[in-house]
Amino acid sequence: MPRTERGGFPTWWTVFGQGPRPALLIHCSLADSGVWRGMAPSLSGALSMTAFDMPGHGRSADWDARGEMSTVCAGMAADFAADLAQDCGPVNVIGHSFGGVVALRLAVERPDLVRSLVMIEPVFFAAGLRTQPDACEEHLAEQRAFVAAMAAGDLAKAARNFIGQWGGGRPWDSFSAEAQARIAQQMPLIAAVGPALYDDVAGLLEPGVLEAVDIPVLLLEGSEAPQIIPAINAALAARFPRARRGVIDGAGHMSVATHPGQLSAEVLRFLAEV
């Protein structure tokens, strides 16, 4: 699809499937809308899917650091969801990692647009830190190393650290030199989402906010996910009125790419009961 303005940002998007239900797919940091291609064939009979590229990702415009990243992404998501809802009513929203946090913000701020919510390993660290700080110690140590590398201007070291945490088990040295350089240059995008993930700038964890999300919610995680992910999912599930959890056996953080069949089966099972 051509780029167009969504949420005030030049945005590229694509579509998958011809199912009866509309869905909006929101990818993780450092990926793009193409990451959903593995799941799309399994979901295409049930969903007509729209997936967009976040700022600085895929074929959307470069991130210009104007505004706060999650606010911009949530605005983009809201515009797409509003377009879809005009014809089909509220949409099913599926988000992975940071995309899961954006999906959650959309459900909180625009409940009129969201029919159901699937979050695959949402990296909403503030939720885990507030409820299970002991389970977050390893992540905090890794995050401190990332912050130090960024402060020193060592983007390559920051990238190695990030991939070690969130690359789904793929070794940094398995990436080509070109890919390593590209990932390193994207590290400011990772730093840009920190306020949303650690400081809850949108106030999603304030009393009564999540409890008001009265739609079906599915929280998924891989059995090999970083320790902080189950803490996050447990904290969120405890506050939603209609939440359930699921585990993808053998998967790490990048289950969207590594375990699309298992992930799709969980999503379809959930949608069949919604």
Structure explained in plain terms:
Helix 3 links the parallel strand 6 (about 90-95) and strand 7. This protein has a seven-stranded mixed sheet with strand order 3-5-4-6-7-8-9, sandwiched between helices. It has helices at about 40-45, 70-90, 100-110, 125-130, 135-150, 155-165, 175-185, 185-190, 195-200, 230-235, 255-260, 260-274, and strands at about 5, 10, 15, 20-25, 45-50, 90-95, 115-120, 215-220, 245-250. The longest helix has 20 residues, at about 70-90. It is of the alpha/beta class. The protein is built from twelve helices and nine strands. Helix 2 (about 70-90) packs across helix 3 (about 100-110), helix 4 crosses helix 10 and helix 6 (about 155-165) crosses helix 7 (about 175-185).
In short:
The protein has twelve helices and nine strands. With 274 residues, the chain is α/β, with parallel strands linked by helices. The strands form two sheets. It has a seven-stranded mixed β-sheet with strand order 3-5-4-6-7-8-9, with helices on both faces. A two-stranded antiparallel ribbon has the order 1-2.
List keywords for this structure.
single chain, alpha/beta, seven-stranded mixed sheet, 274 residues, 43% helix, globular, two-stranded antiparallel sheet
